[in-house]
Amino acid sequence: MELTNNPALLWFVAGYGVFMIILGIYFSKKISNSEDFILAGKGLGSFVLAGTLLATWMGSGSITGGETSMAYSYGIIPALMMTIPTLLGIGILYFIAPKIREFGKFTVSGILEAKYGKTAQLIASIIIILAFVGIVSYAMTGLGFVLNVTTGMSVQIGTLIGAVLIIFLATIGGLRSVAPTDAISAFLALIGLFLALPIMFSIAGGWGEITANVPEQHLTATSTLSTVQLLGFLLPSFFLLLGDQNMYQRLAASKGVKTSKKAQIFWLLAILLITPTISLIAFTSRSLFDDIDPGMALIGATTVLPTAVGGILLAAAAAFIVTTGNSYLLSAATNVTYDIVGKYFKKDASDKQLVLYTKIFIVILGAFSFILGNYFPTVLEVQMYAYTVYGAGLTPALLAVFFWKRVNAKGGISSMIAGVGTTLLWELILGKPFDLNSVIVAIPVAVIVLIVVTLITEKPVSKK
């Protein structure tokens, strides 16, 4: 079956886009200071918090990369395995969420500064900006895919439109407007996915017909991947989630610890429902479309569904993509403003000036994200790069703040440099030897450096 355009689907996407803009403008009027803009006034309830955690995490990475690309390229079992790192990550965050809130920082860099000093804070800010710009870039590309399917316009033009929408929504109201639109997007996605799955199965002729139309290796545990290569796809999301500044900011923005814990339980349950559904729809697309970009598998399914169902699913996909983009863009701009400009160039900046600077940097970083997206051939490739830069560069040092009292500044900073350096060396200079994602090498290097440097530089206990 060939992938054909269905312009009628555009009405659903456009309608939801207009709704998001109106909602964003409405909530933007409730902003009175930087805490409102960055942390939504620390007033997120459990429902909105769960929705924004879900929508931010289950964004373009899942819709046009992650589970979708894995299901289409390698089969249903590897795709379902992509759920495991997320569940483990949520479980760990559940226990450290109270500590995150206690720090009361706008950024992860602020937490690292409290433990390791200003040098760590500056390095962390640069790492976050590098990684988040990459994540925003594939969100923009994801929306380009959506518009390509609906209208037939080129992915490049669609990506440009996506960039404008993402930048606008991030700029208009910060987390105060992003969080509630995230929650609505998550609810819409649940409806769209659950309506689409049984209909897709029926269109494809049932499970027997689906499995008969996919390559035989797509029904095995690892498909054409070795175990180590599969781990290379599973580990990046795990280490990103454990240190993701977006998640830390949202947990810090909750009304309280009880609200936060309740929201995380809802988030985990929603992941258990959504990620297998995405995987199954993308796997079904593999049986219907045997020669499309893997990132198009879920979006392509909307063209064979009844228009109403396909429109709801496509609008939900677009909403998830946009919420990922504006969330990570806002978060990266926050780092530039508060951890670099506010600390080194404009120490006397007023609260209103800091909010203005954040909006300016949203636009600048958004432009960089659009440009970066042109350098990676697939969404999954840029996703793995961005996740690993962050996960290897920050997560070991960050988790040590919560779990290892002996860790010191030299160990933490060395780990951050080693993690990012190894990732860039493996990906950009060596060109991914053995076709392994850099996480397989970068995470162990970062952890080993953290432990060894801390132990050899810690001050000996004086004996009286």
From TrEMBL:
<feature type="transmembrane region" description="Helical">
    <location>
        <begin position="219"/>
        <end position="242"/>
    </location>
</feature>
<feature type="transmembrane region" description="Helical">
    <location>
        <begin position="122"/>
        <end position="147"/>
    </location>
</feature>
<feature type="transmembrane region" description="Helical">
    <location>
        <begin position="153"/>
        <end position="175"/>
    </location>
</feature>
<dbReference type="Pfam" id="PF00474">
    <property type="entry name" value="SSF"/>
</dbReference>
<keyword id="KW-0472">Membrane</keyword>
<feature type="transmembrane region" description="Helical">
    <location>
        <begin position="411"/>
        <end position="430"/>
    </location>
</feature>
<feature type="transmembrane region" description="Helical">
    <location>
        <begin position="39"/>
        <end position="59"/>
    </location>
</feature>
<feature type="transmembrane region" description="Helical">
    <location>
        <begin position="71"/>
        <end position="96"/>
    </location>
</feature>
<feature type="transmembrane region" description="Helical">
    <location>
        <begin position="6"/>
        <end position="27"/>
    </location>
</feature>
<feature type="transmembrane region" description="Helical">
    <location>
        <begin position="295"/>
        <end position="322"/>
    </location>
</feature>
<protein>
    <recommendedName>
        <fullName>Sodium:solute symporter family protein</fullName>
    </recommendedName>
</protein>
<keyword id="KW-0812">Transmembrane</keyword>
<dbReference type="InterPro" id="IPR050277">
    <property type="entry name" value="Sodium:Solute_Symporter"/>
</dbReference>
<comment type="similarity">
    <text>Belongs to the sodium:solute symporter (SSF) (TC 2.A.21) family.</text>
</comment>
<feature type="transmembrane region" description="Helical">
    <location>
        <begin position="263"/>
        <end position="283"/>
    </location>
</feature>
<feature type="transmembrane region" description="Helical">
    <location>
        <begin position="187"/>
        <end position="207"/>
    </location>
</feature>
<dbReference type="InterPro" id="IPR038377">
    <property type="entry name" value="Na/Glc_symporter_sf"/>
</dbReference>
<dbReference type="InterPro" id="IPR001734">
    <property type="entry name" value="Na/solute_symporter"/>
</dbReference>
<feature type="transmembrane region" description="Helical">
    <location>
        <begin position="384"/>
        <end position="404"/>
    </location>
</feature>
<feature type="transmembrane region" description="Helical">
    <location>
        <begin position="436"/>
        <end position="456"/>
    </location>
</feature>
<keyword id="KW-1133">Transmembrane helix</keyword>
<feature type="transmembrane region" description="Helical">
    <location>
        <begin position="354"/>
        <end position="372"/>
    </location>
</feature>
<keyword id="KW-0813">Transport</keyword>
